[in-house]
Amino acid sequence: MRKKILIGVLPVVWIVLAVLVVRTAWSGSDASPSVLDTHSLPVRADLRPSDSGESLRLVTYTADGLTPVKAEVSYANGDSGVLYFMPDGTTLKSEKRVRKDGTLVKVGERQKNEDYATTEYYEDGKSIAETKLVNDIGYLIKLESFFADGSVHVLNQVNSNGTSKKVVYSAAGKLELSDATDGGGVRRVVYYREDGVTAKMKFVAESYEVDAYYYRADGTLYEERTFNSAGDMDVKVYDRDGHALYEQSWVPNYTTYQSGSYKQDYLLSELTIFGGNGAKDRKITYAQDGKTIVSDGKSPVPAEYTRQRPFVTPTVPLPTSSPYDHYPYY
Q: What is the value of pTM for the model shown?
């Protein structure tokens, strides 16, 4: 009988010990600017799921035991943290997380205008890895991230007028990506080569279409694609002098499986071949199989002109009716 009683008590003992350990670890190191006297308030232990990155939360509630005031966190990797909540018990007021050696991992604080600002640190607890500002419902306003040497990695700004600008730099300080949206909702994303100047790919999203531009290493345009909301794709290929060689129009073809899943590919519906200096020479229309020519049955068409060239899918979604749908902060 005594063994059974002791076995039943063990989990409670461990939780009590965990409470003492976490409280000791955080004695005098709260994240709140004005330290609250929470020792007389009810505390509950919350064992966390394994995929949360946390092992235990000790949550302090208001005197009625209903609203969280503070949470002391023990992380699975050995870090410790403390969170303070606003009067609603869910919105963060401030936070602080430290490593086993006491170095800072992250701090955060609610601003007077209800925005929330956080700063994350590298292993030394001093070098800043990232600063972020979000609004009262968590949408991004500004983000800056840095390499360990302090050089800029990412700058991201979202403005109240619907414009935004994001730039990404390599460790060598070269521009890798620019992503900007203007006041009309037109979004332009450019990927750069190693020199940080020459464009590699560019995507422009506007009015239910995405235009994609692919460039050679010397910066000359070799292919242009247009994707629309109906799933159609137009492809235009250029020579090194900038003259159009041919243009393909593709329509989507969906294969549905018994499982309900489907695969999308494309069928060629139209081909335009250009002559010297980009002048239109032939226009060929294809049947629904994407192979049979139904108009312009002249000389054979070069196989290269009818195949589907490999391409990089645009990294921007098709625009919707509202230019701000992808920027819910506004």
A: 0.76
